[in-house]
Amino acid sequence: MSHAAIEITAELVLDLVRDQYPDLADQPVRLGARGWDNQLWRLGDDLAVRVPWATESADALLRKEHAWLPELAPRLPLPVPVPQRLGEPSARFPRPWLITTWVPGAPADREPVTRASDAAESLAAFLTALHRPAPDGAPAGRGRGGPLADRAEGFARMLASATEEGLVQDPDAVNAVWHDAVTAPPWTGPPLWIHADLHPANVLTADGTFCGVIDFGDLCAGDPACDLAAAWILLPDDTIDRFHAAYRPAPDPATVRRARGWALVRALSGILIGDDGVHGRPGGKPTWGPPAHAALQRLVATIR
Q: Are 102 and 42 in contact, with CB atoms under 8 Å apart?
């Protein structure tokens, strides 16, 4: 399904709220953002409505957030969009939708952090709080949080595409980072809760540091290295060691190596999506490119 397949307007969002939650229908509605899976509409000052507009998988992801995130949110040191109401499919709109709290801030792909030390410690504190053993029945990831080798085919395809487009100048160096990561010893601890989608558009900033984390649709149980990759994706140069020192328990060398592999996957994806945005292709986001290129440079520097 393309990103233009379902037309979503303020009038439609207000009608959905009025039909199922009339006690909230007196709030003004305005567009907040168009994400990859969902559109985000402000509902008054304190709430947001997330409406799926593209991928079919978004329906299950919204239900997953509604089921699990309210339990996790109270222990997290950064604000997150806590689900309040679940909208069910109807004749007016054939898919579920979600009302959450509104988290203020600017996406980090548009306003990167400038207070590097504060940001490193804030990210470490957030992941320390999130990374707790997940209960039986916790959702499995969509190819995230499992063995890094499972992503080998996708990694090779992205690297080949980025190299062919002239977006990666030294594929051998990138492959060296990948080989080091994919040959690292696997995670042997219990599956931990992980966000699994910590890229710059899903982390918010204010006053130069992180102020919120959004879009928990990929929330799952797995290897924390998937999330620890965010240090290379989100933080400025020379702050990775500070992040690792603040994260508890301190990641062992094997976990750091796997995290670099997950960061490579995220960086290559961001580079390709950013390039699509520069050229106006569907689904492209030009602001994703610069942080992804910077992350790739940081990652290659760890091997050289």
A: yes
- The helix/strand/coil state of 194 is strand
As beta bridge partners, residue 106 has: 205
pLDDT at 55 over 70: no
pTM: 0.94
Q: Contact at 8 Å (CB) between 200 and 107?
A: yes
Distance CA 187, CA 93 (A): 42
Contact 267, 283 (CB under 8 A): no
Residue 180: closest CA among 255, 269, 292, 266? 255
Mean pLDDT of 52-80: 91
Q: Please determine, looking at this structure, whether the domain spanning 10-101 carries the CATH number 3.30.200.20.
A: yes
The CATH T-level fold of domain 106-301 is Aminoglycoside 3'-phosphotransferase; Chain: A, domain 2 (3.90.1200)
Domain regions of the chain by residue span: 10-101, 106-301
Q: Which residues pair with 212 in a beta bridge?
A: 204
Would you say 153 and 263 are in contact if contact means Cβ atoms under 8 Å apart?
no
Q: What does the DSSP assignment read for 16-84?
A: HHHHH-GGGTTS-EEEEEE-SSEEEEEETTTEEEEEE-S-TTHHHHHHHHHHHHHHHGGG-SS----EE
Strand partners, 87: 97
Please report how the helices 171-182 and 253-278 are oriented relative to each other, as an axis angle in degrees rounded to 10. 140
pLDDT of residue 3: 43
Closest to 131 in 3D by CA, of 79, 195, 185, 70: 195
Cα separation, 174 vs 7, whole angstroms? 40
Q: Which pair of structure tokens corresponds to residue 215?
A: 């879009």
**pLDDT tens across 188-217, in order?**
999 999 999 999 999 999 999 999 999 999
